[in-house]
């Protein structure tokens, strides 16, 4: 008779002397299910109940398509703007020392901390035709408030910290020796930045872009004040959801929400893929 | 073996090695771009809030804030934060314990699920509760029959707030506790402590600054949330209006001074949050780990 | 390419890391900069590379004053202790980088660059790893890639900072021999920094011993070991014992007794006597010798090391005895250094 060797087969959890696994995991799962999973599956269930024809009709409605285009278009432009300026801001914060650097660094998080409604009315006041910035732009024929350009401005504000905070830690990790060795090999400063530093930062920049973009697509509070909300011109998708809800058109609200949700999951997937890929390759 | 001699270069680098800095002109240009960008996009909005709030003088400012509707909005915002933050703290600690202290199947997936609310539009976060509890919602009829009111009332606002602030504490604690490992807890258990004692005397002190950091961010978002709350609140003045919603109502009524007065309180909250956050990062940087932002 | 360092001084925020250093390196030589931490050896290497600018003094490559040239123009191959490989480039792209960033006609074609990279990989015995990323290599392999990358630009001088510092002992010894072979095959003027004397003595044509920002001695392994020219070098290279002594009438004295060593040219007065623990003759009858009682004894491989307490001052010195020597605790042992050197007391 032999005693069975410890089974190396499937095991839900590695043994541990630490107590509390059942309690904490149980509570966490229950809470997660109640707060997040059930409500979200409710949304999916409702949109599935719509049936393909209805769903398609709502999604291909001119106004819906326009709203989605505006949301995704402005979010894309704003994220692109943030990639350029956010990378510069991060570089200056990491590499240069100047009085007030600490304060500038802390300021970058303002969009995380400032309620979006407050940002919305502040930006609107600034960019309105009689506002501080608006009054400078109006003579040049540039209208910002109540146009898609205003949406871009709000989304640049919202998205900035995503890019800076994703790129910054990677920049801090850059080994100065890598730059030095590139210089000994004959590369000038421009070549060092474009061929050595930026490619190394690329995964972080892409991630920052995706985060800013995803946030921009869903943003509501800071945008609705400055956008003017003209259907077909400056109406964003989240606002259209709210409008449909107020019309008790649950079906339309649900369908638009489902599309947006699906697209943001795709973004999430992209972010994860980029990170896994770069971790695998560059260690 | 790292020769300490090499380390001694670090502080001097800035001023010299020509290989690793831009020319003076390039530096100046980049600095100007940074200051202009941060100034226009971050500083100006902040200044305009306080400028507009006091546009009609201090008296108008205090009067705006002592309006009964404003006061009830402040009270509601505090109430909602006082309920949702502790809930998410409890969840955050519990989830971090399960995820950081144990190895189990599906752990990575669970971690991803916790971050989910960050990638959902706030409007959708509100919408899901309307679909669940609204008159036409899945549970709507049942709730009505039993006289339970969730939507367009405080419970709905709390739920929406909990949803959007769900990940803050957990995502702060998980990497921190993972980094710290199980050694301290195992030592405590070997000395005869039970699980609660190990948590209370060992784990909690180890993560307290990280926890505070998470609470800070969670609270800022809870008090400032607009989109999700807007969808579930019903905008009943004096009853279901939080401060951000009240800002919107006042602004849409062309009462800009009052709107900015309330907004200035929220901006003040944001500034306090930023200052505390920066102080925490400066003093306890290592103890709140490298997870920043959001 | 000859390299001449002329009266170079380097300060970091007023702190002198190098004080008036001069050094001539012959073309094709393999030179080791050896010294403890903080001796200035890495600073000297970085100055030669152009990664730092001297506070004073000049550095010549051949007849040319290299101090006037930017780091890009100097054409040095620098290998960092931790290699500083470009993580997002393949091994082949890393090696080809220096050629790819050239301008105009001096830049080889893409095909030529690829050919050079494979050739160099062959030289460093890593053929076939062209497509790998640095993260997929072992420490020793990374070291070789870093060296190949530095050699790809046909450098005037090859500079290596603690080239084996980050490797474990086994790989270290292998690579040491391999570096010597590569050097002999390519003939690059090479300077490397190390704090490991065994590495320096075994590998280099000449060793530069540095301490506190100064060059203490330059010489071949034999010269450095057999005729150290300062107490520091005597103490830093190999093992040594020292005793405070006095010079009088051309004789060396400990306390009131001559120890049988004559030093007719040494200046009168206080001095320190240096000798190697293994380089002593045991004597039976002590008239003119150093004698002491055994304070501690330990077995080291094929020999026995004893610590002797000498004279009333109870100065301790270490000498080596045959394993079968009957010396035990408290035994009296007398000896005379075979080779020794006196330095005036500081």
Structural key phrases:
heterotrimer, B: 294 residues, MetI-like fold, globular, C: alpha+beta, five-stranded antiparallel beta sheet, 25% helix, elongated
Explain how this protein is built.
The complex is a heterotrimer of chains A (283), B (294) and C (346). Chain A is mainly alpha-helical and 283 residues long. Chain A is built from 13 helices and no strands. Chain B has 294 residues and is mainly alpha-helical. Chain B contains 14 helices and no strands. In chain B, helix 6 crosses helix 8. Mean pLDDT of chain B is 88; it is low at 1-16 and 290-294. With 346 residues, chain C is of the alpha+beta class. Chain C has helices at 41-49, 71-74, 91-100, 110-123, 139-152, 169-186, 197-203, 221-226, 231-236; strands at residues 3-12, 15-25, 30-34, 56-61, 64-65, 76-79, 157-161, 189-194, 206-211, 214-219, 241-248, 251-254, 257-262, 269-275, 280-282, 290-300, 303-310, 315-321, 332-337, 340-344. In chain C, strands 6-7-8-3-9-10 form a six-stranded mixed sheet, with helices on both faces. A five-stranded antiparallel sheet of chain C has the order 13-12-11-14-20. Chain C has a five-stranded antiparallel sheet with strand order 15-19-16-17-18, with no helix packed on it. Chain C is elongated and about 80 Å long. Classes of the chains: A mainly alpha (283), B mainly alpha (294), C alpha+beta (346). Chains A and B meet through helix 1, helix 3, helix 4, helix 5 and helix 6 of A and helix 2, helix 4, helix 5, helix 6 and helix 8 of B.
Classify the oligomer: heterotrimer
Radius of gyration of chain B: 24 Å
Task: Estimate what percentage of residues of chain B fall within beta strands.
Answer: under 5%
Task: Give the CATH architecture of the largest domain in chain A.
Answer: Orthogonal Bundle
Give the helix/strand layout.
The complex is a heterotrimer of chains A (283), B (294) and C (346).
Chain A: H1 21-49, H2 52-59, H3 62-95, H4 101-107, H5 110-113, H6 116-127, H7 134-137, H8 148-173, H9 176-184, H10 189-218, H11 221-227, H12 237-246, H13 250-282
Helix pairs in contact in A: 1-13, 3-8, 3-10, 6-8, 6-11, 8-10, 8-11, 9-10, 10-13, 12-13
Chain B: H1 4-7, H2 24-53, H3 57-66, H4 68-101, H5 107-115, H6 122-133, H7 140-145, H8 154-165, H9 167-180, H10 183-190, H11 195-224, H12 227-233, H13 243-252, H14 256-284
Helix pairs in contact in B: 2-14, 3-14, 4-8, 4-9, 4-11, 6-8, 6-12, 8-11, 8-12, 9-11, 10-11, 11-14, 13-14
Chain C: E1 3-12, E2 15-25, E3 30-34, H1 41-49, E4 56-61, E5 64-65, H2 71-74, E6 76-79, H3 91-100, H4 110-123, H5 139-152, E7 157-161, H6 169-186, E8 189-194, H7 197-203, E9 206-211, E10 214-219, H8 221-226, H9 231-236, E11 241-248, E12 251-254, E13 257-262, E14 269-275, E15 280-282, E16 290-300, E17 303-310, E18 315-321, E19 332-337, E20 340-344
Parallel strand pairs in C: 3-8, 3-9, 6-7, 7-8
Antiparallel strand pairs in C: 1-2, 1-4, 4-5, 9-10, 11-12, 11-14, 12-13, 14-20, 15-19, 16-17, 16-19, 17-18
Helix pairs in contact in C: 3-4, 3-5, 4-5
């Amino acid at each position: 008779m032999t005693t069975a060797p410890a089974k190396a087969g499937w095991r839900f959890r590695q043994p541990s002397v630490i107590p509390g696994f059942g309690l904490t995991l149980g509570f966490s799962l229950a809470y997660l299910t109640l707060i997040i999973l059930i409500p979200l599956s409710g949304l999916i269930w409702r949109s599935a109940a719509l049936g393909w024809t209805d769903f398609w009709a709502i999604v291909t409605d001119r106004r819906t398509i326009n709203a989605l285009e505006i949301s995704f278009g402005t979010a894309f432009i704003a994220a692109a703007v943030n990639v350029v300026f956010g990378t510069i801001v991060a570089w200056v914060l990491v590499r240069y020392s100047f009085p007030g650097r600490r304060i500038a660094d802390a300021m970058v998080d303002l969009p995380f901390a400032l309620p979006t409604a407050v940002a919305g009315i502040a930006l609107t006041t600034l960019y309105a035709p009689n506002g501080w910035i608006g009054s400078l732009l109006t003579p040049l024929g540039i209208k910002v408030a109540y146009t898609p350009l205003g949406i871009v401005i709000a989304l640049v504000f919202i998205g900035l910290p995503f890019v800076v905070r994703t790129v910054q830690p990677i920049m801090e990790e850059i080994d100065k020796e890598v730059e030095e060795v590139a210089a000994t090999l004959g590369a000038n400063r421009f070549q060092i930045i474009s061929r050595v530093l930026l490619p190394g930062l690329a995964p972080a920049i892409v991630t920052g872009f995706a985060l800013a973009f995803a946030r921009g697509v869903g943003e509501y509070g800071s945008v609705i004040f400055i956008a003017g909300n003209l259907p077909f011109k400056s109406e964003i998708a989240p606002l259209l959801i709210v409008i449909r809800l107020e019309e008790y058109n649950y079906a339309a609200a649900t369908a638009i929400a489902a599309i947006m949700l699906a697209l943001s999951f795709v973004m999430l997937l992209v972010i994860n893929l980029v990170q896994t890929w770069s971790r695998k390759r560059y260690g | 073996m790292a020769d300490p001699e090499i380390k001694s270069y670090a502080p001097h680098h800035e001023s010299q090695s020509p290989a690793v800095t831009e020319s003076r002109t390039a530096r100046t240009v980049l600095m100007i771009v940074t200051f202009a960008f941060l100034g226009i996009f971050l500083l100006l909005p902040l200044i305009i809030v306080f400028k507009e709030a006091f546009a009609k003088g201090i008296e108008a400012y205090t009067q705006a804030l002592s309006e009964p509707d404003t006061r009830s909005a402040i009270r509601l915002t505090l109430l909602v934060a006082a309920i949702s933050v502790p809930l998410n703290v409890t969840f955050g600690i519990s989830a971090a314990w399960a995820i950081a202290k144990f190895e189990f199947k599906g752990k990575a997936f669970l971690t991803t699920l916790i971050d989910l609310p960050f990638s959902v539009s706030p409007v959708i976060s509100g919408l899901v509760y309307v679909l669940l509890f609204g008159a036409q919602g899945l549970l709507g009829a049942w709730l009505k029959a039993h006289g339970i009111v969730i939507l367009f009332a405080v419970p709905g606002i709390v739920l929406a707030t909990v949803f959007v602030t769900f990940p803050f504490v957990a995502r702060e604690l998980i990497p921190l506790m993972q980094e710290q490992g199980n050694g301290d807890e195992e030592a405590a258990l070997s000395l005869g402590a039970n699980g609660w004692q190990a948590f209370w005397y060992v784990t909690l002190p180890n993560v307290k600054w990280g926890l505070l950091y998470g609470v800070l961010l969670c609270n800022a978002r809870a008090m400032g949330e607009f989109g999700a709350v807007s969808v579930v609140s019903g905008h009943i003045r004096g009853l279901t209006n939080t401060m951000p919603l009240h800002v919107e109502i006042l602004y849409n009524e062309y009462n800009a001074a009052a709107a900015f007065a309330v907004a200035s309180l929220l901006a003040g909250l944001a500034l306090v949050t930023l200052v505390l956050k920066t102080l925490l990062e400066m003093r306890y940087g290592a103890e709140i780990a490298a997870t920043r932002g959001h | 390419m000859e390299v001449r360092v002329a009266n170079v001084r380097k300060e970091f925020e007023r702190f002198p890391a190098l004080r008036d250093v001069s050094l001539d390196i012959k073309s094709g030589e393999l030179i080791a900069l050896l010294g403890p931490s903080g001796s200035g050896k890495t600073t000297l290497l970085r100055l030669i590379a152009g990664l730092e600018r001297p506070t004073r003094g000049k550095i010549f490559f051949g007849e040319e004053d290299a101090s006037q040239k930017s780091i890009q123009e100097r054409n040095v191959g620098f290998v960092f202790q931790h290699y500083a490989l470009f993580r997002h480039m393949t091994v082949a792209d890393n090696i080809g980088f220096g050629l790819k960033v050239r301008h105009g006609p001096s830049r080889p074609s893409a095909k030529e660059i690829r050919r050079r990279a494979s050739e160099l990989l062959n030289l460093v015995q890593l053929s076939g790893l062209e497509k790998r990323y640095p993260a997929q290599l072992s420490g020793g392999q990374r070291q070789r890639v870093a060296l190949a990358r530095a050699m790809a630009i046909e450098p005037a001088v090859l500079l290596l900072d603690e080239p084996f510092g980050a490797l474990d002992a086994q790989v270290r010894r292998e690579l040491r021999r391999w570096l010597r072979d590569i050097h002999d095959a390519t003939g690059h003027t090479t300077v490397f920094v190390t704090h490991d004397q065994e590495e320096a003595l075994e590998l280099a044509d000449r060793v530069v011993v540095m301490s506190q920002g100064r060059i203490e001695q330059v010489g071949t392994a034999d010269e450095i070991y057999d005729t150290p020219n300062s107490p520091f070098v005597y103490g830093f290279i190999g093992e040594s014992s020292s005793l405070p002594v006095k010079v009088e009438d051309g004789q060396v004295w400990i306390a009131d007794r001559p120890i049988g060593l004559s030093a007719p040219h040494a200046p009168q007065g206080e001095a320190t006597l240096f000798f190697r623990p293994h380089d002593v003759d045991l004597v039976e009858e002590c008239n003119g010798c150093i004698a002491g009682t055994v304070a501690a004894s330990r077995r080291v491989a094929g020999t026995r090391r004893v610590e002797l307490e000498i004279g009333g001052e109870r100065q301790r010195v270490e000498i080596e005895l045959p394993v079968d020597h009957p010396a035990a605790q408290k035994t009296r042992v007398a000896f005379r250094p075979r080779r020794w050197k006196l330095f005036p007391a500081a």
